[in-house]
Amino acid sequence: MKTPGTTVTKDGRRHSVSVASKANLIILGFGIAVLIILVIFPFFGSTEWTRRLVDFFCYLALAELWNLMLGYAGLISVGQQGFIGIGAYTLWLFSDIVGINPLVSVVFAAVGGAIIALPAAALVFKLRGGYLAIGTWVIAEILRLIVSNIKRAGGGSGINITATSQMVQSLGPDAWYSRVYWWALAGAFIAIVVTYLLLRSRTGLALKAIRDNDLAAESCGVNLWRTKLYTYIIAGAGCALVGAIQAMYTLRVHPGSAFSVNWTAYLIFIVVIGGIGTIEGPIIGTVVFYVLRETTSQWGTWYFIALGLLAIVVTVWSPAGVYGWIIKKTNFMLFPLQRKLRLADGEGPPAEVAAGGPDEAAV
Amino acid sequence: MEWVSAIIQGILLGGLYALFAVGLSLVFGTMRLTNLAHGDLTVLSTYVALIIVGSGAVRFNPLYSIPIVMVIMWVLGYALQRGLLNFIVQKGDVQGVIVTFGISIVIMNALQEAFTPNSQRLPVGELESRSITISDQLAIGWLPLIIFILAVVVIAVLQLFMNQTKMGRAFRAVSDDQEAARLMGINTKHIWAVAMGVALLIGAIGGVMMGIRTTFHPMLGSDRLIFAFEAVIIGGMGSSWGTLLGGVILGVAQLLGSFAFGPAWATLCGHVVFVVILALRPQGLLAKTVTA
């Protein structure tokens, strides 16, 4: 949030470059207030809403990470369910077999996701574009099939995580779900902050360059492979973290649901509706998705048909999503990533000149 | 002798996978579109056959429904391309993946809604059980053999079509450089639509044959897409005979895996062979083009 000093150009015009606007600072304060309220929410909120928000934060974290891969690194994955499943089963492994507190095992799940992401990346990065997408799906299927064939882990019918059930009994459901809630909130918070910091960093510039034109980025010295690898590993670790949180929430693991491709369907929907290539888009998308799910998911297959149709319609006719539309109308970003040029004297374009933000090429 | 049988069955199964894979590869080749709905569209063709066979006073052999299903799927493919996919073909991989994934979700759930998630099959009566007996332990089913021969014929005809006809030449021109092709007076939008139609028409042959061979349900699409994709990558992109070889390798890997470790491991063994080939020879066994 620095406000750099005014510099004078050769032709004598003064200008300054800023990232955040005043409105952003106000919103930062507002955001911190919201965060504090969310942190203490379990103390005054109802158990039902605490539980609901666990789901909400899980989807938000997943969507942010998927968007980081797709919107910035140009990696189209339809196989993040593989990492979600690995996270869930790693939690089971560490809490039930090794005997570590499930709330701590979550960390191991994230590490497990990162470890799996490394060889997976080495394989799928040999493919490009749409074929890379199917490649990630194959990886997810391989992980699912391996896990379903492990009898100790309950095979195809899944297994209860005894350690979590014991914690529910010893702590009481309210206290247990509050802890799960804090993990989910932390997961979503970490996903957003990591994405934001990453995009503000040197790697972020590389990512945005890759997003706009990977060939040009590479010729400017961006290490394409390494930048994509970092992104894939971060996303893999994050998805595994969410998988572990989901497992703590449901108290059991099941290969059919942990490795379900429906996760990808939800993520695509959330990111597409919200707006690809923005941090704010997935937040809006998650809210829309959540409202839709709470109101129409009892329609089963029709609910999925509606999700699919909406994703198609938005992609074809309004590819920037809801948030892209808001930026276009207001040029306001909640998480400022653009550098805005202001001319100090009245000459030249008075409006802010934006550079490096989401543009047509991004979507 | 049982493992010999597994290999032969695997080779014949590979023909079926090739029928799914050729369409995926054709669409990717002509318009650089990865059709994630390809598997579900072949499942849809199986259900179209089910409607044709099950409806009307005369219940006829599902084999005779194939030409009708082929025509229906061609029309559907053409319409789908012109009405929807042509809008996103030029916009990049992301749009292609998202829209075709959306189509996949819609088809799968619509089929569940219309036909229930239960398994069904297309009965052909006597042919299902007829086989050529070679020895006591070795017999080749007529049906898998017919499917394999069909796959070979389809690929040969497709090759002839691509190399000998005017339309085939237009396909290749659009594939190589669609701007230049357009300058030469080729209607690329029409060509893409025809390509999608042909892809679904070939997929329909596979879809109906699979429905005759085994039971099917609406959720099979993703497996078919993945097997088709693996066959394409193993064989090498852009090579039709490579795709057949890829299908055969995948089929043999699955059935040998099933024979050695049990049916639960069949699919996984196929994936493992795919991964090994992707790691060691990412351009595929009979690659024509290097870039994806």
Q: Topology, pairings included?
A:
The complex is a heterodimer of chains A (363) and B (292).
Chain A: E1 7-8, E2 14-18, H1 22-44, H2 47-72, H3 81-98, H4 102-124, H5 129-148, E3 159-160, H6 162-171, H7 173-200, H8 202-212, H9 214-219, H10 224-250, E4 252-253, H11 255-258, H12 262-274, H13 280-296, H14 301-317, H15 321-330, E5 339-343, E6 353-355
Antiparallel strand pairs in A: 1-2, 2-5, 3-4, 5-6
Chain B: H1 2-31, H2 38-54, H3 62-83, H4 93-115, E1 131-133, E2 139-141, H5 142-164, H6 166-176, H7 178-183, H8 188-213, H9 221-235, H10 240-261, H11 266-280
Antiparallel strand pairs in B: 1-2
Word description of this protein:
The complex is a heterodimer of chains A (363) and B (292). By secondary structure, chain A is mainly alpha-helical. Chain A has one domain: Orthogonal Bundle (ABC transporter involved in vitamin B12 uptake, BtuC). Chain A is 70% helix and 5% strand. Chain A is built from 15 helices and 6 strands. Chain A has helices at residues 22-44, 47-72, 81-98, 102-124, 129-148, 162-171, 173-200, 202-212, 214-219, 224-250, 255-258, 262-274, 280-296, 301-317, 321-330, and strands at 7-8, 14-18, 159-160, 252-253, 339-343, 353-355. In chain A, strands 1-2-5-6 form a 4-stranded antiparallel sheet, with no helix packed on it. A two-stranded antiparallel ribbon of chain A has the order 3-4. In chain A, a hairpin with a 5-residue loop joins strand 1 (7-8) and strand 2. In chain A, helix 2 packs across helix 13 and helix 3 (81-98) runs parallel beside helix 5 (129-148). Chain A is globular, with a radius of gyration of 22 Å. Chain B is an all-alpha fold and 292 residues long. Chain B has a single domain (2-127, 140-280), classed as Orthogonal Bundle (ABC transporter involved in vitamin B12 uptake, BtuC), CATH 1.10.3470. Helices cover 72% and strands 2% of the residues of chain B. In chain B, a hairpin with a 5-residue loop joins strand 1 and strand 2 (139-141). In chain B, helix 1 packs antiparallel against helix 10 (240-261), helix 2 crosses helix 3 (62-83) and helix 2 (38-54) crosses helix 9 (221-235). The longest helix of chain B has 30 residues, at 2-31. The radius of gyration of chain B is 19 Å and the shape is globular. At the A-B interface, helix 5, helix 12 and helix 14 of A face helix 4, helix 9 and helix 11 of B.
